[in-house]
Write a structure and sequence with these properties.
The structure is a single chain. This protein has about 350 residues and is an alpha/beta fold. It has one domain: Vaccinia Virus protein VP39 (Rossmann fold). It has ten helices and seven strands. The protein has a seven-stranded mixed β-sheet, with helices on both faces. α5 links the parallel β1 and β2. It is globular, with a radius of gyration of 20 Å. The two termini are about 35 Å apart. It comes from Bionectria ochroleuca. This is Ribosomal RNA methyltransferase FtsJ domain-containing protein. InterPro entries: RNA_MeTrfase_FtsJ_dom, SAM-dependent_MTases_sf.
Amino acid sequence: MAEPLASTQTGQPDAAESIERLITKYLAERVPEFCELSELRRKGWDNPKGDTFFKKQRQNADNADKETSVWFFSMMKKIAEELHDATGAFSMNPPYDRKPRILDMCMAPGGYLHTALQKAPGAEALAFSLPASHGGHRVLLRQTQSVECRFLDVTMLAADMGTDTIPASHPEADEFLERQLQATEKFDLVLCDGQVLRTHIRPEYRECQEAIRLDTVQLVLGLEHLEPLGTMVVLLHKLEGYRTVAVIRRFSSFSNVKLFKSSKFHCTRSSFYMVATQVQTQHDNAIQAIAEWKMIWNMTTFGTKEDYLRYAENARREEYLQFENFGPELVRLGKDVWRIQRDALARAPFIRNA
């Protein structure tokens, strides 16, 4: 029988073990798929051919020509089809007197939005996308009257995040954007699949916390502007990571959560999608989550690195206290995600030929 999580008499993690190690230990004792995946990852890390394999993938993504961009767009449409077949994520049932509405937080190239619109004929969409001039992907979604696309950097939406006064000393004080979404503006489906692009042209000071800023702005604006009982599709990475676990745990307390990983594309990577349906947007836990994510965005945008590190240490302790109760649900939700990545890594040439 698996041992319970180790703790000190005060209920805090032992100083020698981080929350990440505790989660890993918990899963290793209970999930054979995760154990086997961990061993394959170790083999990949030990093999220089693994580095070459993933480096080539990154180069292809960062230097995509027109043909590669079209292939990538087609791939995203296929992933979206697979996701919908598995979860029904793009099924929307708005009141009879209005059209379904979709918010896409990071749209380009547009494959996901294309598929969502196909599943909901007559739907309207608002899409944000990083301009190509700033290193964003080119948009291949066919432009129609039903889609309004605004080219901007969503991490700079200070007014939408509740910050109207920008410190004059901030290095990008003049770059923050006016409000894009009115408080009453709601959507039936929100797509949050943006990730930090290596091609994104941005000041160096943003590098260390850009991923956190991008994640939190998508979660806040997505949840704040979601219709009650609507659906959010959120791209996540490394299921056993404590910040990822925290997001899934929070959503599980006010929505129905499914996890999806394509069995055909990006299988060797740790990325996957959380599909949250029947989201209770006015639940106390949802309101608390929004407030905390706003605080984190403000801290990582206007505060110091030390401020965030102090917060993160406390957050790790809190997640430790919450994890043992949530652990069985994480195991239930995550087995297929770990299985798909395990099977893909087992087939990878840098593993088979090691």
